[in-house]
Design goal:
The protein contains nine helices and 15 strands. The protein is α+β, with helices and mostly antiparallel strands. Bound molecules: (3R)-3-hydroxy-3-methyl-5-(phosphonooxy)pentanoic acid (PMV).
């Protein structure tokens, strides 16, 4: 009745924003991401018949906001239904990076939770089944079940909204440098932000209508290891998503001033010949993707941008997997 799993966040190069089905949490558009290796979530799930409700501890602390406990319970409820039991669980989880600040802690969090929870209940689920279950809690979590380059196309596959691996992390060793520009949790979570955007933006239909072209361009760039094409489509998808967010009513601004300065720095590096591009999610952190060998130069440049609090580095890593020990030993 106990198991532990580790999962890593992923960074979308072709972005998902908006839901086709809010009940099942099926994305409105397809996305393509890379799974990281240096950042991780480790989660231990222990089902305990003595409990009346799930008990969630994050980093050893039990004062978790109630909405996080509810999301965790809803995710485990799916597994309990499959196992035909009602037993509650202790969930101990730990991240080695700031949570809720646009670093995709929900992606690694739910991928690890589904993987550990399914094992603890003895459910023999395929990776695709775990991906579909993780998606119901967080769209991007479906992608963290897999490593390397991963696609989530709501129009393909037997289970709607299941991610599929495209390329192993060793096949193209891109590097990711993350400039942390704020450690504050984001003002508006992605689900609320997506719903507001879909309801109020005049640009929403154009966003949904053009996303497939971006997916195809990125898929081709990955298959051909064509960095320049991947840079072009990734920055386009990112800026289009933030343009869409800005066009909601009221407009959603996830960036701060330092975010913009980091974008300028990365573009200056690229114009000077450094193979690097940027992407940004629903938060102010900037992720710089570069070819092997360029990361040290990217890191040094981002460190000099006034207001950057921290710079992290990661390669590409594996999907969610069981580990012998959970958090805190
Ligand atoms: O996983 P969610 O539902 O929190 O949505 C994540 C959305 C973005 O990170 C902004 C883009 C993406 O595709 O990951």
């Amino acid at each position: 009745m106990q198991a532990s799993a580790q999962a890593q966040p992923n960074v979308a190069l072709v972005k998902y924003w908006g839901k086709r089905d809010t009940e099942l949490n099926i994305p409105a558009v397809a996305s393509l991401s890379v799974t990281l290796d240096a950042l991780w979530t480790r989660t231990r799930v222990t089902f305990d018949p003595a409990l009346d409700e799930d008990v969630l501890r994050v980093g050893g602390q039990s004062d978790t906001p109630s909405n996080q406990v509810e999301r965790t319970t809803r995710c485990l409820d799916q597994l309990r239904r499959l196992a035909g039991i009602d037993t509650r669980a202790h969930i101990d989880t730990e991240n080695n990076f700031p949570t809720g600040a646009g670093l995709a802690s929900s992606a690694s969090g739910f991928a690890a939770l589904v993987t550990a929870g399914a094992e603890a209940l003895g459910l023999k689920l395929t990776a695709a089944q775990r991906s579909a279950l993780a998606r119901q809690s967080s769209g991007s979590a479906a992608r963290s079940i897999f490593g390397g380059f991963v696609e989530l196309d709501p129009d393909s596959g037997a289970l709607n909204g299941t991610a599929t691996p495209l390329l192993a992390p060793e096949a193209w060793r891109l590097e990711v440098t993350i400039a942390v520009t704020s450690k504050q949790p984001k003002a508006l979570g992605s689900t609320d932000g997506m719903n507001l955007t879909a309801r109020t933006s005049d640009y929403y239909d154009a966003w949904v209508g053009t996303a497939r072209g971006d997916l195809h361009a990125a898929r081709r760039a990955v298959a051909e290891r064509d960095f320049d094409s991947l840079a072009r489509v990734s920055e386009r998808s990112c800026l289009k998503m933030h343009g869409l967010m800005l066009s909601a009513d009221p407009g959603l601004i996830y960036w701060n001033g330092v975010t913009v300065e980091c974008i300028r720095e990365i573009r200056a590096l690229r114009h000077a010949g450094v193979p690097v591009f940027f992407t940004i999610d629903a938060g102010p952190q900037v992720k710089a993707i570069s070819l092997p060998g360029a990361a040290a130069q990217v890191r040094d440049a981002l460190r000099t941008v006034p207001g950057v609090l921290d710079v992290m580095h990661s390669g590409l890593g594996q999907g969610a997997r069981l580990v012998p020990e959970g958090p805190c030993g």
